[in-house]
Amino acid sequence: MDLYTACTLNHPKVTDMLTLSNNLNTSNKKGWTCLMYSCYYGNENLVNRIIDLDPTTLFATNNDKQTPLMIATMSGNVSIVKKTFHVDILEMLDKLGRSAMFYAVLYNQEEILEYFIEKQANCNVIDNFGKTMTMTAISKGFQRVMKLLYEYENRHEKTMLKTTWSEKMKMTKNNHQSDENIDYHMEKLLKQLSLEKYWPMFDKRNIRYNDFLKLSEQDLKDIGINLFGPRRKLIMTIDKLNELRTSQEHSRS
Length: 253
What we know:
58% of the residues lie in helices and 0% in strands. The chain is mainly α. The protein has two domains: 3-149, Ankyrin repeat-containing domain (Serine Threonine Protein Phosphatase 5, Tetratricopeptide repeat); 194-252, Transcription Factor, Ets-1 (DNA polymerase, domain 1, Orthogonal Bundle). The termini are far apart. Residues 158-169 and 171-184 have low confidence and may be disordered. Pfam families: Ank_2 (PF12796), SAM_2 (PF07647).
């Protein structure tokens, strides 16, 4: 039995095999190391043992440029994520341009996302498909993740919006936000969708956030958004934000 299989199965003799190994950074054809397999299958005792034997294994990447931290995040084991965390690894990107925090969003790992927020990870990563973390959360309907991202982004930007996501939604509903704040909210949303070039079209027509949530695809065509891709992205965003608002209204009633 090779060492990778032993780590996958958490074989009783794997600890001895690890101790006898000359190089724990060796990998198989996919570029996976023993630590990566241990992270993926949640073998926490092996993760601890491997890192204790050779801390440099934290920095290895496989053929997809995934780190052990990304793999642990994908698998959802919070303890292993904390064990494989290192500040120099946090912002590393895989071959699709995604960081470990992006993985937390992509796989709806709320507790791990909160941990990365605590570590002040960069939430403005844009992957190779042009998607941000916020766009990913919206498209998948991960409401709690959306809320965490909005609150985190707002805390780290010098803006007049100092309230939480739920408070902003409530204020918008009751028309307590100033026009200036609503304008900013709308502009920021477009920026998160990588569609900020369309902001002047909305601004020119005095379209506020509440107005935006009522727009149809034909409305978007009428204001000048002629390309199908951006228009489709906006319609999906409108649908998801309306679902979120409805869900929050039901939870308060």
